[in-house]
Amino acid sequence: MGKKILMPVSLTAENGAKAALVGEYHEEQWIDCPECHGDSDECEKCEWCDGEGGENVEVPVSWTTIKQIYTDCVELFNDDISIQMEEKPTELPGNRFRIQLSGDDIYVFISYNNGIPWEIFATAPCSWLAGDQRKGYMGAINRLAALSLQSGTEVEKVVSQLTKSSAGDRDYSGVLAGLLGQGFMP
User: Fold this and answer.
1) pLDDT of residue 85
2) What's residue 4's pLDDT?
3) Residues in Cβ contact with 129 at an 8 Å cutoff, skipping those fewer than 6 apart
4) Helical packing angle, 155-164 and 133-150, nearest 10°
5) pLDDT of residue 185
6) SS3 string of the chain?
7) Percent of the chain at pLDDT above 90?
8) Of 26, 42, 109, 173, which is least surrounded by CB within 10 A?
9) Is the pTM value of this prediction over 0.70?
10) Which pLDDT score is estimated for 80?
């Protein structure tokens, strides 16, 4: 299956879909002539429609129809989407790594779900005091990398993005990219 994205289960005015979609889609609809009402006996004499019996008019697709099409698509792809939404397993195998960063030991734990890195945790050294920005950055990087992987992003793409934002093995982004890129599995 191709690229996946998360979308609302239904379209509503509250989530902005109605304002975004109403009037965007049109279809042709036959409208009977208001004079002869499409009656073949009267139609030939009708000056209003010149004997056509009516005309094709472009009308907007109704909001009800738009919602039904969307709902049908959600139902069609529901089985595939639900794979991404599965509950977190209670136990996962993982690996713990001790790395050196700026002269400090950091322990990184990566757990795996069906062979894919799934959760990432790291312990900051005691020398990093409470409120140290490095702790916050490390936690944010871990959470965002794990969220991307859990949402179906390929490991190689996460590694590529971490690598682009790093200074090599001198910062946490580069170290984590190296660990994920090596493909360690328990």
Assistant:
1) 47
2) 66
3) none
4) 150
5) 58
6) CCCCCCCCCCCCCCCCHHHHHCCCCEEEEEEECCCCCCCHHHHCCCCCCCCCCEEEEEEECCHHHHHHHHHHHHHHHHHHHHCCCCCCCCCCCEEEEEEEECCEEEEEEEEEECCEEEEEEEECCCCCCCCCHHHHHHHHHHHHHHHHHHCCCCHHHHHHHHHHCCCHHHCHHHHHHHHHHCCCCC
7) 7
8) 26
9) no
10) 53
β-pair partners for 98: 107
In the numeric block, the tokens 């170290």 are attached to 175
Domain boundary assignment for the chain: 17-82, 94-181
For the segment 143-155, what is each residue's pLDDT rounded down to a tens digit?
888 888 888 888 8
117, two tokens: 């890195």
Q: Are 74 and 9 in contact (CB under 8 A)?
A: yes
